[in-house]
Amino acid sequence: xxxxxxxxxTGDDELTFLAHTISMSSLHGPGPWPPHAMDLPDExxxxxxxxxxxxxVVMDGVRTHHFGFAPDLGAVQEVxxxxxxxAPYQRLHExxxxxxxxxxxxxxxxxxxxxxxxxxxxxxxxxxxxxHGTRREAVKIGIVLVGASxxxxxxxxxxxxxxxxxxxxxxxxxxxxxxxxxxxxxxxxELAGRVTAWGRIHAVERLEGSDDPEVKAWLLREGFxxxxxxxYLAPLAxxxxxxxxxxxxxxxxxxxxxxxxxxxxxxxxxxxxxTTGISAxxxxxxxxxxxxxxxxxxxxxxxxxxxxxxxxxxxxxxPEHWLPADVQALRRxxxxxxxxxxxxxxxxxxxxxxxxDGFALAQYxxxxxxxxxxxxxVARLRVDPCxxxxxxxxxxxADPGTLVALAEELLPLDDLAxxxxxxxxxxxxxxxxxTIVTELERHPGLGLxxxxxxxxxxxxxxxxxxxxxxxxxxEPPEEAAAWVRAAHAVEPDGALRDEMDAYLGQG
Length: 507
Description:
Layout: H1 17-28, H2 56-67, H3 73-84, H4 89-97, H5 105-113, H6 119-132, H7 136-149, H8 155-162, H9 165-178, H10 184-192, H11 198-205, H12 213-223, H13 234-240, H14 243-247, H15 254-269, H16 284-297, H17 302-314, H18 324-338, H19 341-350, H20 359-368, H21 374-383, H22 388-397, H23 400-410, H24 413-416, H25 428-440, H26 448-455, H27 460-471, H28 478-490, H29 494-504
Region (Disordered): 28-51
């Protein structure tokens, strides 16, 4: 199989997904692949309108974990008929390209099992779709069909396609169905190491309950981490990986200590989140106590400081079933650990250089330790006025006059008067302007130049914040009414025009 040679039989010049994965594998190895590799061959052009973009791989992840989905039984019957009647593969591909694989896969396999189709007939259709497909939903169903009818010889194909996050869910299930009993888990384990986001979540979830020492060790050190939310996999890692038992090692390695902090902090963040949180972890109390001991004696890093602060915050509202004595002991222990001077020194060192790549994490940690770092934050904004997180932190430290003066100095107000438009999410400068003008509603009389620029910005939310800031003024300046009238004359959003009317006394 050479890159670029697998085409649809129509003579179409579209790149197949298999050719894409072969190319990425040749360039970047088995995976994980760089982000640009996930720009799929059939991806439609995106409009730069500031609206949130939801890739189909994210939609699959959200639907499988949160919303569920109903099978499309009509489509199942139609596709099964095409397979049974041996319709041309091109026609089958075209039909599947319009379908949603999630709504077909399980019911289609069941439907085909009850029909008079040979295993080979299903397999050949699946391999053709997987190898020649140029549309993601058709390739997904191809992988499903291979999983229903293939064998251990399909491992390489499934791993290759599964390294694309878009297909990992389907490839992981297919590997479990096609590989010999002793190799199924190892194949999924290999796939899990090749992906980092939703694909990592789908693959690792299929390792739950593993008793393979290598798998368990990997889950505790790396396997729970993913580019979506570590909270999805932390409960599985803690239980399948036997976290507490591993922490009892007299000399645990640094990767295990870091992994334990990541898992425990994800568990405390996960209360009420996408999966079970710390309250459902039966060994939470002793594991938290042991982690505090290890962190106290180990190397001081910003990552560990972040974990300690996250856990300490949660201890203010612990699970109800924890014993009060245990809670008090944990609170004292974490307070003692964080009182070590080295943590404050570490955070302050991290915010000393405003250009440092680690500035954001150091800033977060310094905030958690209540360190006075306003001068460092101002220095950061002078380097990067688009840093919205730093602007948010400055809001809580600077007096309103200082905040407004800084924003008027650093933000390119003339360039921000770039609308009106219908963007929902702007660039960094626009997000910073929105943050500050929102705060101006609490401080009427300040920031008129900021409000004027916001009224003329392309972002709907920015303009709305400007109107609301002006409405908070007891006696708005005369020029503000003229600005709002001018903005009203060109405002594309009806609801915002109504708010402007109300401000002008016309509504």
